[in-house]
Amino acid sequence: MTEPTPIHSMTGFGRAAAERRGLRLAVELRSVNSRYLDIQVRCPADLQPFELAIRERIQARVRRGKINAHLAWEEESQPETLPQLDEEAAKHYLAQLR
Question: C-alpha angle with apex 34: 31 to 35, nearest 5 degrees?
Answer without folding.
Answer: 145
